[in-house]
Amino acid sequence: MDTNIALYKYCVRIADTSLILAQRMCEWCGHGPVLEEDIAMSNMGLDLIGQARGFYTYAASVEGKGRTEDDIAYFRNEREFTNRCIAEQPNTDFGYTMMRSFLHGCLSYLQFRALVNSKDETIAGLSEKALKEMTYHVRHASEWIIRLGDGTEVSHEKIKAALENLWEFTDELFEMDQVDQSLIKNVPNGTRW
Predict the structure, then answer these.
(1) CA dist 164 → 96, 159, 183 (Å)
(2) What pLDDT, on the 0 to 100 scale, is given for residue 188?
(3) CA 65, CA 46: separation in Å to the nearest integer?
(4) pLDDT by residue (tens digit) across 61-108?
(5) Is residue 53 within 8 Å of 45, Cβ to Cβ?
(6) 8 φ, ψ (degrees, to nearest 5)
(7) Are the C-beta atoms of 115 and 123 separated by less than 8 Å?
(8) What domains can be seen in the chain, in order of their start residue?
(9) Residue 191, Cβ density class (10 Å: 0-12 exposed, 13-18 middle, ≥19 buried)
(10) Is there a contact between 13 and 107 (Cβ–Cβ < 8 Å)?
(11) Tens of pLDDT, residues 27-72
(12) Is 2 left (phi over 0), alpha (psi -120 to 50) or beta?
């Protein structure tokens, strides 16, 4: 696979996941358990939209066909999206949303922490900003998971059920495909792309 095609697809995958998860997080706007949390989830959604915009914009630049971030984000059918499935899982309850945010955030944190060392200055810059945001997302979600797990019997069972349900979507967070392999293969002498 051509390196530019692989880079385009890699950026779109990150952006798609961020966009879909942002939409899920923003569904809580006006419905959060408390006003402060309503605002926090909306802000996390806005962080994710910012990440999506950055990676879509770079993908459009790499593609070189004159398309914009909006063209890539909004003018494809649902089958053309390459987001992680965990991002699109519906909000069943607050604990479920926090567990999904935690699982996604942990992988994204590790991914962006590695990508800040990329030789690709745009990837490194986008990742540096996203890393700060993911640090907050993971901390925020983990605090809620502990609080719910240590709370009532009902909250404990809900957060446990959320983990058991969402765990089945974590395999894909560690899978490598042709896109990843192509980017790794085309990196000269062990330097990071």
Answers:
(1) 10, 9, 33
(2) 53
(3) 27
(4) 999 999 999 999 999 999 999 999 999 999 999 999 999 999 999 999
(5) no
(6) -55, -50
(7) yes
(8) 3-175 (1.20.1260.10)
(9) exposed
(10) no
(11) 877 776 766 787 888 999 999 999 999 999 999 999 999 999 999 9
(12) beta
Q: If DSSP states are collapsed to H, E and C, what string results for 46-114?
A: HHHHHHHHHHHHHHHHHHCCCCCHHHHHHCCCHHHCCCCHHHHCCCCCHHHHHHHHHHHHHHHHHHHHH
**Amino acid of residue 141:** A
Residues 6+ apart with CB under 8 A from 156: 148, 149, 150
Structure-block tokens of residue 176: 């490598």
Instruction: Evaluate whether 60 touches 72 at the Cβ level (below 8 Å).
Output: yes
Task: Quick: pLDDT tens for 128-142.
Answer: 999 999 999 999 999
Contact 122, 58 (CB under 8 A): yes
Which DSSP category does 168 fall into? G
| Residue keyed to tokens 């690709």 | 120
DSSP 8-class letter at 133: H
